[in-house]
Amino acid sequence: MLTKTQLMAARERALASLEQANIVLTPEEADRIEVADFGLSDLTRQGLQLITYVNTERVCAKDLVLFPRQTCPEHRHPSVSGLPGKEETFRCRAGLVYVYLPGPVTPEIGALIPRGSQEHYTVFNEYVLEPGMQVTIPPDTLHWFQAGDEGAVVSEFSTRSTDEHDVFTDPNIRRDTLVR
Description:
180 residues; mainly beta; nine-stranded antiparallel sheet; 2 helices; 9 strands; 36% strand; globular
């Protein structure tokens, strides 16, 4: 659970990161920056900040902000109501981001698995994205990602987003961020 102070500080920090990456938000968009702690109350290690620009029946566009070494936990986007799960492309805009997918295990990964959550990270085929680099993740594919030491800004282009249906490897994760 986050306090209102923590929530507002994370939003302001995310907005500053977006501005530093030369991504301009309208005041209305700045007010809609989401802060996701996944119910783990450990935003500095597991969480992310995001702004959704469009999410229609066919397409979705977002910018994700990850603070230094912040991790979006392992999850997949399953089929929903007979439709394939979300296919997404991550394009790094600023910083460095490590993305992990199924496949050959990278012997020495660049990410730091959040302590106490090691058992909930199972895929280790590493993609290292620097600004201008991208990777596409097929529907229903386990993946997780983490910013490097300086944090990262990542644009996400995808099919319709139904994040409320995401399936996380960690059974303790909740999609809604609770604020006290």
